Amino acid sequence: MKIRLKGAIGYSSPIYTDLDISLSLGKIYCVMGPNGSGKSTLLKTLSGTLPPLEGIVERDPNVKTIYLPSDPPSLPGMRGGDVALSVLAGDDRRLLYGNWVEGVEFERVESFLKELNFSLNLDRDFEEFSTGEKMKILLASSLASRAGILTLDEPMSHLDVKSRLSLYKIIRREKDRKLFVISLHEVTEASMICSEGIILDSKRAVGPIGIEEILREEVLSNVYGVKFKIISVEGRVVPIPISSSLA
């Protein structure tokens, strides 16, 4: 299972050109960079949600792909369980309306929800859940789905600390079943989940490269425009921002 992007990405004008990015199953890829650097645009292009401005995106046409935005959509009139079934069905509405979603798949949704510390009734209206609870429903459904490629846009941003740690554990466990591409807002999370990273700074895209090559003081300072200090916590590299300027 692989993705290859070759060309340019953007909307009316290119953000990055001459890209050649290849991703494969078994690694967890993180997309990093400041606000407005194009992280969401890259994820949408890799998932097929947004076409490249130039070039091609190569994916196995038989492998389903899910793009999960950072903010859950507003879905009035749908119950939490309806939303989960829609994600499981994906683009093939026959799975939903033909009742082809197998019970074992929905049991997997419930299992992932339990791991994400979610114990509420899915018969409630989706709009009654908090933003974090909505995200847990979408994440659990995506993980349980038949999709082989998950592009997750800042999936931890609405989760509490305990649920974030649970999600890290799930993704690490599932990385040989699904290809994960994840954009990160918090740099400190990178070493907890990433195998390799793609770093964006509005001028160029670098990667994928080993995450240890990105988590260096000089690299992070150049990309984010602030000073970083690298510390070690239980053998894990953790970048800490220590100044809002490079001076």
What's this model, at a glance?
It is built from nine helices and eleven strands. With 247 residues, the protein is of the alpha/beta class.
Task: Throw out a few tags for this protein.
247 residues, alpha/beta, Rossmann fold, 2 domains, 6-stranded mixed beta sheet, 3-stranded antiparallel beta sheet, 9 helices, 33% helix, globular
Topology record:
Elements lengths: L1 E9 L3 E11 L3 E5 L6 H9 L6 E6 L5 E4 L11 H10 L3 H5 L5 H13 L15 H14 L4 E5 L7 H14 L4 E5 L6 H4 L2 E5 L4 E6 H4 L2 H8 L2 E7 L2 E8 L4
Parallel strand pairs: 3-7, 3-8, 5-6, 6-7
Antiparallel strand pairs: 1-2, 1-4, 8-9, 10-11
Helix pairs in contact: 2-5, 4-5
Pfam family, one: ABC_tran
GO molecular function: ATP binding; ATP hydrolysis activity
InterPro entries: AAA+_ATPase, ABC_transporter-like_ATP-bd, Metal_Ion_Import_ABC, P-loop_NTPase
Q: How does this model look, in words?
A:
This is ABC transporter ATP-binding protein. Pfam families: ABC_tran. Keywords: ATP-binding, Nucleotide-binding, Transport. By secondary structure, the chain is α/β, with parallel strands linked by helices. It has two domains: 128 residues, Rossmann fold, CATH 3.40.50; 66 residues, no CATH class. Helix content is 33%, strand content 29%. The protein is built from nine helices and eleven strands. The strands form three sheets. A six-stranded mixed sheet has the order 5-6-7-3-8-9, sandwiched between helices. A three-stranded antiparallel sheet has the order 2-1-4, covered by helices on one side. It has a two-stranded antiparallel sheet with strand order 10-11. It is globular and about 50 Å long. The termini are far apart. About 4% of the residues have low confidence.
